[in-house]
Amino acid sequence: MCAVWLYSCVCVCVSQVLDASENKSIKQQIKEHVTQLVGRGKGSGGSSDPAEVLSRCRDLAMKVKVPEVVRKDLEKAMKKAGG
Predict the structure, then answer these.
(1) Residuewise pLDDT in 10s, the chain (83 residues)
(2) Half-sphere exposure of residue 40: CA atoms within 13 angstroms, side-chain side
(3) Which CA distances in Å does 44 have to 22, 39, 64?
(4) Are 64 and 18 in contact (CB under 8 A)?
(5) Number of domains in the chain
(6) Do 27 and 46 share a domain, yes or no?
(7) Same domain for 59 and 35?
(8) In this structure, are 14 and 25 located in the same domain?
(9) Cβ atoms of 56 and 19 closer than 8 Å
(10) Measured between alpha carbons, how far is 31 from 35 in angstroms, rounded to an integer?
(11) Which residues span the domain enclosing 3?
(12) Residues 7, 65, 69: CA angle, nearest 5 degrees
């Protein structure tokens, strides 16, 4: 039960982080890569290789700036879950 709750908190935090204005460009780039992967962006010069797209998305995710309020919320959730 605690793991499910923590997972829900993490998902909400990820969504909040990507919605932050400082991550707008990163969110758009990730969306473009995923769109290419599912086939809607074929012919746009991108890759449809899942491993390559995942690698690009991972690189973008490492550039995300986490707002302080979200960081504190996540820390509280992890402590409550015993992490």
Answers:
(1) 455 655 566 666 778 888 889 999 999 998 888 887 776 545 555 566 788 888 988 899 899 898 888 888 878 877 887 75
(2) 6
(3) 26, 10, 25
(4) yes
(5) 2
(6) yes
(7) yes
(8) no
(9) no
(10) 6
(11) 1-20+66-83
(12) 65
**Do 6 and 83 touch, CB atoms closer than 8 A?**
yes
Query: Both 16 and 31 in a single domain?
Result: no
Vertex 4: Cα angle to 67 and 81 (nearest 5): 65
Nearest CA among 41, 43, 25, 23 for reference residue 33 = 41
The separation between the first and the last C-alpha atoms of the chain, rounded to the nearest angstrom, is 14
> Which are the contacts of 64, defined by CB distance < 8 A and separation ≥ 6?
17, 18, 23, 26
Question: Same domain for 31 and 44?
Answer: yes
Q: Are residues 25 and 58 in the same domain?
A: yes
Are residue 15 and residue 26 in the same domain, yes or no? no
Q: Is 30 left (phi over 0), alpha (psi -120 to 50) or beta?
A: alpha
Instruction: Supply 77's token pair.
Output: 């959730």
